[in-house]
Structures are given as C-alpha cells and as structure tokens.
Amino acid sequence: MTTPVLECRDLRKAFGDLVAVNGVGFSVAPGETYGLLGPNGAGKTTTISMIAGLLERDGGEVLVEGAPLTTTSVATKSAIGYVPQDIAIYPDLTGRENLRFFGRLYGMTGDDLARRMDEVLQVVALADRAGDPTREYSGGMKRRLNIGIGLLHRPTLLILDEPTVGVDPQSRNAILESVDQLSAAGMAVLYTTHYMEEAERLCDRVGIIDLGELKAEGTRRELVSMVGERDQVLLALAGDLEGAAAACRALPTVHHVSTKDEHVELVVDEARKTLPAILEAVSDAGAAVRSVEVTEPDLEAVFLQLTGKALRD
Amino acid sequence: MKAVAIAAVNVRRMLRDRSNIFFVFVFPMLLILVLGVSFGRGFEPRIGLVAADPGPLGQDLVRELEGMPDVEVERYGSVQDLRTSVERGQLEAGVVVPEGYDAAIRAGQDAEVRYVARQSELGLQLSQTVRSAVAEQGQQLRAARLFVSEGAGSLDEGLARAGVVAQALTPVEVVTTTVGEERFPTRLGRFDLGASSTLLLFVFLTSMTSAVALIETRRLGLSRRMLSTPTSIGTIVIGEGLGRFGIAMVQGLFIMLGSLIVFGVDWGEPLGSASLLVCFALVGAGAGMFLGSLLRTEQQAIGLGILVGLGLGALGGCMVPMEFFSSTMATVAHFTPHAWAIDGYAELIRRDGSFVDVLPYLGILLAYTAVLFGLASWRLRRAITG
Amino acid sequence: MRVALLIAAKDLRQRLRDRSAIMVAFVVPLGLAFVFNATLGGISTGGTSFRYGVVDEDRSQVSAVFVDDVLPAVQEGGAIRVRTVASEADGRRMVADGELSALFVVPAGFGSAVEGSDAARIRVIGDVDEPTGTQVARSIASRFAADLNAVRVAVATVAAPGETPTALEALVQRAAATATPVEVVDVNATTRELDTTTYYAAGMAVFFLFFTVQFGVASLLDERKDGTLSRLLAAPIGRAPILGGKLLTSFVIGTLSMGTLIVATSLLLGAHWGNPLGVALLVVSGVLAAVGIMSIVATLAKTSEQAGNWQSIIAVVLGMLGGVFFPISQAPGILPTLSLLTPQAWFLRGLSDLAGDTGWTVVLPAVLAMLVFAVVTSAIASVRLDRMARL
User: Fold this and answer.
1) DSSP class of B291
2) Which distant-in-sequence residues (6+ apart) come within 8 Å of B269 by Cβ?
C-alpha cells in the first residue's frame, strides 16, 4: 500500500475556552481529492492551519509523505501548496512579482522558476495581465492568482481553504475546473468548503465536520447510504402548516420534519411508495398542497441527518 | 441645521480616535510645559565658574564674580566639565580662578584668571563683564601693592588700610537706566509667551491634518451619499468647513483653558483673546478645507498637512519669536495668518490691550478666512460633483 | 539569511511604491529643513555685535581716556561698535529706536569730580530689549570706573598727610602704573555646536527617521491583515528569517532616508554634517536604535493603524525631548540631562562633537549610547516579535 500524502490523527486546538477542533483525523492518498465539508465556524480553517504548519496544535499529529510536520519543520513544508481563504497577495506588487517572491521562498530559482511562472500564469489565465499591480485586478483575477501561487512549486499536496467564497459563478467554475485538472494530473488535494455542490462535484472522499469534530467520512455514495434510501420531500402548503407537520410526524415512514415559510420539508423512506399517505395526512390536517418536490438524497441530507441542521441558513 | 449635523459628526469622529486625543490635547500642553521650563525665563547668559581652593583673596573674587549682574553664574567642579559645557553651548563662557590664587598674590606674583569662551560675539562681549568684575575686585589689591612697593608695610597691612580708605572715599559710579518699551515684560510668567504661539501652531496643524478626514469622507463616497440626501452642495461645503472649525475650536479652547488652569497662563482680556481664537480657527478651517479640496489621497494630505502646518508656523513666528527675525523675514512672516494672530496676542498679553485694540488683527484674519473659504468651496464643489 | 534578504527586497520594493513612505522618508523632512533654514537660518547662535553710542559732555582729560582709549580698545577686541553721538537727546532717541544697544554719557564736570575726589558718575542708557547689550555696556564703564577708583584708593592708602602737590602727582602716576595682580587670560574653546542650518537638517532627519523605520516591522501587521503572513508561515522557511527580513527593511529604509537627507541638505542648504566616517557611524547606530524602539511599539499593537498611531506619539515625544525642534541640550535645568534618555539627543550631540573636531573618534560615546539603546530595545522586541510572526 502506498503512503498517504497526508495523514493526520486526533488534531486538537482550543482558543481559550472555545474548543475549535476536537480530535479530527483523516488521510489523503496520492491523486485523491479530499473535501472537508462543514458550515462556517465548524473548524475547517483551524484544522487546515494546523495541517499546513501555520498554527501550533494542542494535540495530535500530522504526517506529510510520512514525515511529521510541526510549525517549525521547514523542509517538510515544501511538499505543501497552501491557498489561504483570504486573498493573500501583495496588492502593490505585480502578479509576476508576487509569483517570483513566493517561488523564491520555496527555493526556486533561475530558469526553472521563470518557466514554472509562465506555466502557472497560463493555468490561471493571467499571462496577459502578469505585469500589472494586483490591486488593479478584478476579484476573480485575484482569486486565480491566489491559487496560482499555491501551485507554483509543484506541491504534492495542495491545500485549498474555501477558494470560491465570494467569487462570481464564472470564476468559480474556472477554479473548480482547474482543481479537477490538477487532481487528474496526480496531485493530492485537500479542499474545504461549505458548498455541498462543490464537495459533490470535486471530491473523491468527503469528511463532514461540525463543531470541531469529524462526524463522518467516505465517498459520496458511502455517505449517502448512511442516510439510507431516504428521499427528501418538499411540500408547498396553504393553510394549517403546523397541523400538517404534526400529521406527517405521526407517520412511521417519515423520519424528519421541518417547517419553513409556507413549506414543510420531510425525509422519508422511498418517496414513491409513501407519498400518497403523506398527501392524505396533510389534507386531513386541513392544509392544501400547492406543489410537491422530491429530491434524491445528497450530502445536504446527510449533513442534516448527522447534525440536525442545514449546511447553509 | 444640517450643516451643524455634519460638523458634529466631524468633531465626534476626531474625538473617537484615541491617538488624536494625544496630538490634539496632550501634546500641546506638553510642549507649553517643556518650552516654559526650558526657555520661559528668557535669555540670561550663563557663565560657569571653577574655583578650587582659591584661598581668602580668591574667595573675595569668587563672591564678586557670583554677584555679576544679568548673568547666571553656575559653579563647576572641574575645568574639563566647564570646557565641555562651553563647547557644547550649555554655557556662554567659563571662568577659572586658579588654585593657589591667594598664595601667588601674596608672593607678589600675578595670578592668572582664565576666561574660556567659544569664538563668538557673545563670548567676546561677556569677557567685558568678567574683566569688569575682576577690576572691581582688584582695586584694593592694587592699592596694597603700591603700599608694599612704596615700602609702607606688608601686603596684609596694605589691604587692611585700603579697605578702610575705600570705605571713606566716594567712588566713581556707573548708573544704568533703560529706555524703550519692553517687548517681553518681565512681569509675564514663564509659560505666557510660549502658550499663544503653541496654541496657534496646533490649532492650525490640526486643521491642516483634518484635511485627511475630508478626503476620506470623499473617498468613501460619503460626500456623494450626503449629496443623495436632500442636502445642497452649499450645505455640505459649509458643514465640512464647520467640521474643521469645530475641531479647531475644541482644541483651541482646551489649550487656552487648560494652560490657564494648569500653568496660570495670562491670555489677556477674555473677549479679545477668544475672538482671536475664533478668527484664527476660521482661518485654519479654511486652510484645511482648501488643502482637502486640493488633494486626492490621504497620504498626500498627511504629508503636506504637516509640512504646511509646521512650515507656516515656523515662518509665522510660532517657533522662534519674530523679534529674532531679520527685517526681510519679518515682512515675509506677515504673509502668514500666524504672524498677525501672534501680533494680536502680543497686543493683548504684553501691552494689556483690549478687544478694540485687536480689531485690526481680527479683520485681517477674517479676510484670510474669506479668501480661503472661497477658494476651498469652489474647489470642493468641483471635486464632489466632478 | 537568503530568505531574510528576499523578504527585505520584497518589502523595499513595496515601500518604494508607497507614496506615504516616500513622503515621510524624504519629502517632508527635506521640506521642513528648507522652511526652518529659510526662516531661522539667519539667526546666529553666537549673537550679534552691540552698537554703542557715547556722548562726551565733559571734554576733560579723564573723559578723553574713556572715549579715546578705553572704548576703542574694547572695539578692537571685537563684538562691539562705538560711535560718537552729538547729544544725549539724540542718543536716547537712537536707543529707543533700536539703532543703538546702549548709550554712554560722560556728564559735564566728570573729570574735575574724579580729580577732586568728589562723587562722579558715568551714565549708561540701555535698550530695554537688549539686556545683555546694556549689561556689557555697564561692565565696560564699570571697569573704567574701577580703574579710576583703584588709583584713588591706592593714592589715599599710601599718601602721607601734607604731601606736596608735585609729590602727590608723582604718586598718582605710580599708582596708575601699578598693575592689578590679577590678569584675565582668554582661552578659546572649540565650538561643539551645530550651525542653525545643520541643526535643523539633522533634527528633521533624525525626527522623521523614527517614522521611517516603522514601515518595516509594522508591515508584519499588514501581512497578517492581508493574509500573506499565513502564506509566509506555510512556506518552507523559519520564523527567524521573516522577522530578520522585516528588521532589515526598517534598517535599509532608515539608512537610505538619512543618507539621502544628508546629501540633499549638504548640497541644497549647505549644511555641514562633518567627518563622513563619524556621520556614518552615527547614522548606523541611530537607525539601529530607532528600529529597536519602534519594533517594541509595533509588537504592542494589534493593527498597523494602531502601531502607526502609537509610533507617531513615541516619535514625537522622544523627538521633542531629544531636542529636534529646539536645542533642548542648551536649556537650563534638568531637561538637558533628561534629554539624554533619547537616542535623538545622542545623535545630535554626536554631530555637535563632530562640528568641533575633524576626527571621527569623537562620536564614539554617542555611538555607544545609541548602540546600548539598540541592544536593549531589540532584546525586548525580539522576545515579543516572535509572537507577532504567528497566526
């Protein structure tokens, strides 16, 4: 069996009384894309900061290509490409100057650095604006450069901390595509997000994190199967919403009920079979059904099942 | 009313920044204190004196030297220290009464008193004072010497005799009187002169640096937002101007009252003093507005604000009194509002003038205000509406 | 070291594109040195000549000694100019107008009063605004009076009662010839003072140095705010070179600013900084002290704005106390001693010492003092700095 690119065990970190990360552990194999999925404040960035050696940890260990990594292990850090959540570039330097500076910090020099800078500028589609100060870049361009800097030194593990936050849909798509390509090229990727769609689309395996703990991990299929063959049903209702919800709750095939605005959201066994009974119960409760929407289970549903709350509010 | 609201916001923003509190309130008071302590006594030349074991005759000379009028005499322990202090300009000159002064004179030899000074006019001038003191003290020694050389007796006998004779004689005297009006009346406290120039320096400096806030307001688009409310450009211009004025007044009143309470500074007649402050704060507001309307970035405003604020202050006699300027520079100084305001305060504080006496100065300051405000609102109108 | 240089090179590139850094490091200090030089450069630190008038209403032998011998002799020595004035009224008016510093009046009957041992007085009328000029005039007259008195005392001490007039006259001659046994000898001290132009050039340079160096260390706070600090920490480099790079940046900008100001004020204003090696030592140690002090302040701040504000306060207070605005080292009292608690005061003292001496070694005490500042403050800063280079 090959050594995992990244292996971390029992990571712990508290800020004063606040326990930010509590015993998180997982591993990422070569060429694998691992997604850390959780809502804002779940402990994703803290976890990643400990893995990248930015933050002292209270406990646990991190192995990168088998070598232990702490905040002071200088050599081991070369294997990691880190893309912070904030746009971490110097606004008063040009794109090329930013790349050159960070490339040199990773010990790159001369022709190798020049060649690699050109390659990266191609990948992030900034070749024609490389000579401009980055403060003149659009938001999407800054994001792309932010990622480009992390790729420059050909890391074996790329850590991306919510790279798509606050990005327009077009740039977002471009970012996701380039991550796909990198992964296809054999790079191990650790990706945090609170967008379920991104995790579903990109990641070979997903870890679901909440309140500093890893609730579950596996491939999408594995995770979804935890919820079982359950579907999500969304009813748009008029009339007694609470009464309808109570009636649904009483049905044995309904596992989870929540109400919102004019809607009732249900997690049910095999929607096709149970739907007639649900509709009957709702109309008996004095509510009129205006529309019905049935969704196959997804990570959102898994998250809801595991934590009792939605990924996004 | 809206203009007052804009002004109030300006003052509140200034007070909320804690470092402003230091520069606007604490630092001026500190400066008044330091200036008062170090230079408030006016200029009295300092002469150092070294006299190690001079003997009784030497003691007489030391007493004579220490009694020199209008110079401050400081005793020094060693010639080396004395010399260093003279070289560094801490002393204007030094006098060394040699060891064995007494013995040398009794032995009929000459004693050498050394006068140490840098090569400067003042050094040469003060040597007259020292020589005069030495001559004064040498009178009876000369008589005693003559007494000895005429074979009338010993030196001590001669000295005793000369002492008695000198008592009986009517000496030739020097009577000194002065004419003219005192520019720096001695009745003034040590903080009085520095306080008004510090007040003017800081009120103007604060107005200049608050041009930064004006630019920031514009850069953040707040001016546009204000313009989007039912408020006319004129109101905004007046309001922003009032903001500068409010800040300058808050600071000016603080310095005036604070220095009055803490250092007992004499500000002269209250009405005249306050109206000078109001008019000068208006000038400062106009200048700050003008600078703020002229520049685009905050960095420029900080740099130029300090440069112009300190520069005009120096030129206008806020750092070194205009009395020390050459006549050309004094003329140039009166292109600055500072010089006129300082003249106004001099009228109040040194000549005990009243509100009526400062009216001409108020008029000049208001003219500055009108011109600066005119230029500034014209520029600001263009800057906001582009 | 390589990484520290890399970071310093990057920072310098950023600072040189930063208008406020250029303003603070070069434009404003140079501008203020200009203004101060223009306004205050004409004021000589050594004082000016006193202008005296003399009215001889007596026209006796005795008054002639004063007018024709004593006063010209003093004028010969320098620093005073004497002219004859027609009448006391004219003289008074000239004093009141500031044309004369003081007026000597030898009243009619002075000579005969002196010879007859009656009360005799010379009057000195001084300008109220020239206390020193008046005082010196009085001294000159007093010395003459003391001479006259000395002869009178000497003669009265020695003369036997009933002496013949001829014998008495001879005794007066011998008395006048008897020199005072105390001689005043002039000793020239070298001037270890800066001329006004150099003083303001140096004062402004060292004052703004403390603003200039803050661009180095405080930029760590910017890096944290902008997120680039996490990127530096993720890179395969230690914390030490990051901090080293920042300190190096401060040092280089500070030295660059000082160097530029020294050259510019020498060429444009004619400032005399003195022996180049001595000046270089002062600059280097001064910059090190400034970097150390400002680093401590930066480590206490949470944001770069806060750091900037605190640093300004410290720079202004130390500057004022250190005598960059007015020569506090020449003030009376405790302030000159207190002033030596600031590196600015030592810097200016070192330069003043250079002004009196061409050898560079005279700056060593000042250099040593500033190095002590540098070492102590960097030691304190380094303990705290390490904390800054963490998330």
Assistant:
1) H
2) B348, B352, B353, B354, B355
In A, which residues are within 8 Å of C228 by CB distance? 88-90
CB contact under 8 A, A85 and C6: no
Under 8 Å CB-to-CB from B235, ≥6 apart: which residues?
B2, B3, B6
Q: Do A105 and C226 touch (CB under 8 A)?
A: no
* Tokens matching residue A228: 């079982």
Question: Of residues C16 and A48, which shows the higher confidence score?
Answer: A48
What mean pLDDT comes out for the span C24-34?
87
Tell whether A89 is within 8 A of chain C (Cβ): yes
Question: Is residue B15 very low, low, confident or very high in pLDDT (cuts 50, 70, 90)?
Answer: confident
Contact A200, A123 (CB under 8 A): no
pLDDT band at B143 (very low <50, low <70, confident <90, very high): confident
Which helix (H) or strand (E) segment holds residue A11: the answer is strand A6-15
Q: With 0-12 CB in 10 A as exposed, 13-18 as middle and 19+ as buried, what is A269?
A: middle
Q: State the pLDDT at residue B1.
A: 61
Distance from CA of C140 to the nearest CA of B (A): 6
Q: Tell me which residues of chain A, numbers 42 to 71, contact chain C at a CB-CB cutoff of 8 Å.
A: 49, 52-56, 71
Q: Which of residues 296-325 of C touch B (CB under 8 A)?
A: 309-310, 312-313, 316-317, 320-321, 325
CA distance C36 to C33: 5
Burial A48-61 (b: 16+ CB within 10 A, else e): bbbbbbbbebeebe
- Reported ipTM: the value is 0.79
Q: Among A169-183, A267-281, B292-306, C256-270, which range has the highest average pLDDT? A: C256-270
DSSP, collapsed to helix, strand or coil, labels residue B184 as: coil
Residue C278 in contact with residue C360, Cβ under 8 Å? yes
Within 8 A of C344 by CB-CB distance, chain B residues are none
Q: Is C28 on the interface with B (CB under 8 A)?
A: yes
Closest CA to B209 of B6, B368, B3, B19: B19
The size of the B-C interface in CB pairs under 8 A is 363
pLDDT tens digits, B233-260:
666 667 777 777 888 888 899 999 988 8
Smallest Cα distance from A81 to chain C, Å: 8
Helices (H) and strands (E) in chain B, counts: 17, 5
Selected residue with higher pLDDT from B228 and B307: B307
Mean pLDDT along residues B50-59: 86
- Of A56-60, B298-302, B369-373, C144-148, least confident by mean pLDDT is B298-302
Contact C158 B116 (CB under 8 A): no
Distance from CA of A295 to the nearest CA of C (A): 40
